[in-house]
């Protein structure tokens, strides 16, 4: 698992180069947004259960066939599994936000996810919708907290949806 700093240094070291202006700007941007990243991760930690619950409610309002008989979230066990997965996406997105790097998502969430979802017949579109709902909720919380430049919130959520969306079920 890497963060922005170790990834940047590793890339420059591998090329045998000193850090240049672009590297310094990247580091400056990462450190400038550091406190906001911590604030957002703290908000997520303090409100995770509520975020997941509300996002699940919104998802099932948008895609009600999921909770109808025969739907992928029909039965208590499947419903709970859906919310559990949403919680995983939220938690690991908060880690990636702090790190400023998506490696943790690839290593801990996305490896094997495609195969698992394919084998279980989990529909991708509702998964993507749920992830985007959580992203929007977190961005709203950040805006309410006065965090003006919250673009860093998009990165992990969008990365997950891009990677999961490449699966054709």
Automatic annotation (TrEMBL):
The record ties this protein, via Pfam families, to: Phycobilisome (PF00502)
Sorted alphabetically, the keyword list is: Antenna complex, Bile pigment, Chromophore, Electron transport, Membrane, Methylation, Photosynthesis, Phycobilisome, Thylakoid, Transport
Localization annotation: Cellular thylakoid membrane; Membrane
Task: Using the record's annotations, give every residue carrying the modification N4-methylasparagine.
Answer: 72
Q: Name one GO biological process term.
A: photosynthesis
Q: Which domain of life is it from?
A: Bacteria
Stated membrane topology is: Peripheral membrane protein
Q: SUPFAM superfamilies, from UniProt? A: Globin-like (SSF46458)
Q: What is any one of the record's Gene Ontology cellular component terms?
A: phycobilisome
Q: What InterPro entries does the database record attribute to this sequence?
A: Allophycocyanin_b (IPR006245), Globin-like_sf (IPR009050), Phycobilisome_asu/bsu (IPR012128), Phycobilisome_asu/bsu_sf (IPR038719)
Q: Which residues bind (2R,3E)-phycocyanobilin?
A: 72, 77, 82
Q: Which family does it belong to?
A: Belongs to the phycobiliprotein family.
Protein name, entry field: Allophycocyanin subunit beta
- Organism annotation: Vasconcelosia minhoensis LEGE 07310
Query: What's the gene?
Result: apcB
């Amino acid at each position: 698992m890497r963060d922005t700093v170790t990834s940047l240094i590793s890339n420059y070291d591998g090329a045998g180069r000193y850090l240049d202006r672009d590297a310094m700007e990247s580091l400056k941007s990462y450190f400038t947004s550091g406190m906001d990243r911590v604030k957002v991760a703290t908000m997520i930690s303090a409100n995770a259960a509520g975020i997941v619950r509300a996002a699940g409610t919104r998802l099932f309002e948008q895609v009600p066939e999921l909770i109808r008989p025969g739907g992928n979230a029909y039965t208590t066990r499947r419903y709970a599994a859906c919310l559990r997965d949403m919680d995983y996406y939220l938690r690991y997105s908060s880690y990636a936000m702090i790190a400023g790097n998506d490696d943790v998502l690839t290593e801990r969430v996305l490896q094997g996810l495609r195969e698992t979802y394919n084998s279980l017949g989990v529909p991708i579109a509702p998964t993507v919708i749920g992830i985007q709902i959580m992203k929007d909720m977190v961005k709203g919380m950040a805006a309410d907290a006065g965090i003006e430049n919250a673009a860093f919130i998009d990165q992990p959520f969008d990365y997950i949806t891009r990677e999961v969306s490449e699966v054709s079920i």
